[in-house]
Amino acid sequence: MPRSNARGLPSLGRCRLSHPTDRRRCAVGAERRCVLTCPVGGMARTAGPIISPPDGLSGLPAYIRKGQELRLEGPGGILSDLGNMRGIAKTCCSAPSVRDPRAQRAVRSSSDPTPPARRAVVVNAFTVDLEDWAHGLLGGETPITSRVLGNVERMLALLERYGVKATFFALGKVCEKFPELLPRVAAGGHEIASHGYGHDLVYNMTPESFREDVRRSVGIIGEQTGAAPIGYRAPAFSITRQSLWAGPILAELGFKYSSSIFPIRGSRYGIADAPVFPFNWDDWLTARKAGVCGAAGQPEARSPKPGLIEFPMTTLAFAGRRWPVCGGGYLRLLPARFLKAAVRQAHRQGQPAVVYMHPYELDVSEVCELERAGWRFGRQTALTQSLFRCFIKRRLADIFRTFKFAPMREVLGVSELRR
Ligand SMILES: [Zn+2]
Predict the structure, then answer these.
(1) pLDDT greater than 70 at residue 259
(2) 315 vs 104 pLDDT, higher one
(3) How many angstroms does the Cα of residue 24 sit away from the middle of ligand 1?
(4) Separation CA 16–CA 403 (nearest Å)
(5) Per residue in 313-337, pLDDT tens?
(6) Is the terminal CB of the chain with fewer CB neighbours within 10 Å at N or C?
(7) Residue 136 C-alpha to ligand 1 middle, in angstroms?
């Protein structure tokens, strides 16, 4: 039977959370209606429809302002997902200066309230940047090789073998040259999203040329699949501080989500203080303008609302830094345990992770064969780009057996939204 908390709101005893410094204000509960308030502000994902604020999005991780009430309706509300509830507990209880021993016990118990067997499974996004290696590397007028066809087939076969549905961020120029590719991918039940047209880096483009590049890719995808994409990924994660204008343009073009930001300090890409979990672009830009950012890089005072969602690349927090480990060359060069650790870190906060790959990572002999055919890439490039490709299939199989994956639109809960 649900009990009442100090505010008179119904709550489930086992699922009740309390904040060590103010037990009355951080209760999560209810079977049909519940109210979440958080005394320190933090991120929460809701499974039930949000009643107020009225523009809240169900299923989307949202920032709850300090002291803000989030009213939910539906069986279980946010309690239907214990993994997410642990995330809330952790956020709520991470306030500084917890000295009371009773409060410290409350922190320990609320950070892991559920036995492992009863934990909810968090579904992650598996994504594939559909492009040709040589063209992606050299860009411009470099010819797109037909190896991309065989490589996509290899990727599709692997996904089918492990029952994984993915999101393919397709490059317009590749699909234009090989119009048979997208129908083949779509027939496998995968989501088709946009990777732009020519693989030009966003921060090297003007807002006008970016808009044109994306529009062109949308046209090709729409023509070949009969549906416009709702997701976008920038080539080489090139939405950085210099190209933040790209987000509003994507929203204006009708996209529902982007997965283009690497929340790291990198030389070619990355925004070191970007949130590490899915967030709303409007909220984030407003917070940046106001200079509001938490210690972990999360905007402190956010409320959920419709608009472009960003699913940033998953990173591993270690030794005070964020490390890129969740796909591409990182998965090729590092053991899979780093990726697994990053995914589990996200799950401990009730958040999904995103893993990305390219079809060419499965093409073990590509670099050697292209060099034999007269292509020249430079010694270091050839080595770093081909090293350990032979391990990728085994590593992906291991990851597919360990975690659950779905297309990004499903993980973000935007499947039902149409452009
Ligand atoms: Zn790319």
Answers:
(1) yes
(2) 315
(3) 49
(4) 28
(5) 999 999 989 999 999 989 999 999 9
(6) N
(7) 6
Query: Which runs of consecutive H residues, i.e. helices, occur in 126-199?
Result: 133-138, 147-161, 172-177, 181-187
Cα 234 to ligand 1 centre (Å): 7
Task: Find residue 3's DSSP bridge partners.
Answer: 11
The Cα–Cα gap between 24 and 35 comes to 12
Domains of the chain: 11-108 (2.60.120), 123-412 (3.20.20.370)
Ligand 1 geometric centre to CA of 152 (Å):
14
Instruction: Write phi, then psi, for 294 (nearest 5 degrees).
Output: -75, 175
Percent of the chain with pLDDT over 70: 67
Name which of 136, 122, 31, 18 is nearest 80 in CA terms.
Answer: 31
Q: How far apart are CA 119 and CA 416, in angstroms?
A: 27
Cis amide bond preceding 235, omega within 30: no
**With contact defined as beta carbons under 8 Å apart, do 52 and 70 qualify?**
yes
The answer on pLDDT for 417 being more than 70 is no
For residue 195, report the distance from its CA to the centre of ligand 1, in Å.
Answer: 7
pLDDT band with cut points at 50, 70 and 90 for residue 72: low
d(CA 331, CA 394) in angstroms, rounded, equals 11
Give distance in angstroms: CA of 374 to centre of ligand 1.
24
The pair of structure tokens assigned to 84 is 């997410």
The H or E element that residue 21 is part of is none
DSSP string, 236-270: GG---GGGTTHHHHHHHTT-SEE-----S--SSS-
236 Cα to the center of ligand 1, angstroms: 5
Q: What are phi and psi of 172, to 5 degrees?
A: -55, -40
Contact present, 253 and 272 (Cβ < 8 Å) = no
**Strand order from edge to edge, sheet including 69-73:** 33-37, 69-73, 50-52
> At CA 409, angle to CA 405 and CA 413, rounded to 5?
95
